[in-house]
User: Fold this.
Amino acid sequence: MTTDPTRRATRVHARGHWPLDRAVGAVTLAFDDRHRRRMAMTDDGGAAFLLDLPRAVALDEGDGLEMTDGGFLRVIAAAEELMEVRVSGPVESFARVAWHLGNRHLPVQITGDVIRLRRDHVIADMLTGLGAEVRDVVAAFMPEGGAYGGHSHG
Assistant:
């Protein structure tokens, strides 16, 4: 890929805080590619650009990358192979499962009574042993920010 050095994204604006009418395209990124500072990328239309931020930022679904020409690229969270974990029974059972995942420092996304995390057969076996129901899904992965990976934008 040849990156056009004049086509650069230099600022991030949080979802809902950038002008949608200035969107010039989108860029779909997996979780691991949504925490960067400087990297050659290709938008969904096939055009190369340079992500050139002052510091690394965790990008979320719907954020806007401000381009030097005044346009914006919308960030889309790519669908990834994940596990969905459900726990029936008392809240203590859910807390126990969440504790075991947190103790292993695994990135997780909590939506209501469902925990999503990356597929891992060893972790799936552990969760099943704790009484959880585990099923494979393909979905966007937007884990909790945590103490060290907050989702703040400059």
Residues 91-103 form the longest helix (13 residues). The chain has a mean pLDDT of 91. The first strand starts at residue 8 and ends at 13.
